[in-house]
Design a protein that fits this description.
Helix content: 25-40%
Largest sheet: 4 strands, antiparallel
Number of domains: 1
Radius of gyration: 14 Å
Number of strands: 4
CATH architecture: 2-Layer Sandwich
Shape: globular
CATH class: Alpha Beta
Structural class: alpha+beta
Strand content: 25-35%
Strand order of the largest sheet: 2-3-1-4
Distance between the termini: 28 Å
CATH topology: Alpha-Beta Plaits
Length: 114
C-alpha cells in the first residue's frame, strides 16, 4: 500500500458502506507490492469510493478498511476484472488467511486534537 498519512479517514455522513479486509500474508510476496499499488489506483476510480485506512501489526496482521458511499460503489469494486484477478492470485500466493466484513455504517463521529 502507498504511504498513508498518520490520520484516519475523517468521519463521513452516514449511511455509507465499509469493507474491512483483515489478512495474514504468506512468505511469498513476489508481485504483491505492485499489485497492491495498482488496486489502490483502481479503487480510487470507482464512483462512490470515499477513502481507505490501512494498518499492519508487527506480528503480520494487516487491516484495510475501504469506505464507499453506497452498495453500488462497493459492488462495482467487487466486480472489477483486475480486482477479481488480484483476489485469485492473493488466495493462490499471498495470503495465509483473510476475512472480509462488509457493513452499512449508520453512525460516524471523529475527534482531532487542535
Amino acid at each position: 500500500m502507498s504511504d498513508h498519512p498518520a490520520a484516519p479517514v475523517p468521519a463521513l455522513e452516514p449511511p455509507y458502506y465499509v469493507a474491512v479486509f483483515t489478512s495474514v500474508r504468506t512468505a511469498e510476496q513476489a508481485g504483491y507490492p505492485e499489485t497492491a499499488a495498482r488496486m489502490e489506483e483502481l479503487v480510487k476510480q470507482v464512483p462512490g469510493y470515499l477513502g481507505m485506512d490501512h494498518a499492519e501489526t508487527p506480528g503480520g496482521l494487516s487491516i484495510t478498511v475501504g469506505y464507499f458511499r453506497d452498495a453500488d460503489a462497493l459492488a462495482q469494486w467487487r466486480s472489477n476484472a483486475e480486482h477479481r484477478s488480484a483476489r485469485q492470485r492473493g488466495r493462490a500466493e499471498w495470503y495465509e488467511s483473510y476475512t472480509l466484513h462488509v457493513a452499512k455504517v449508520e453512525r460516524s463521529s471523529g475527534f482531532s486534537r487542535a
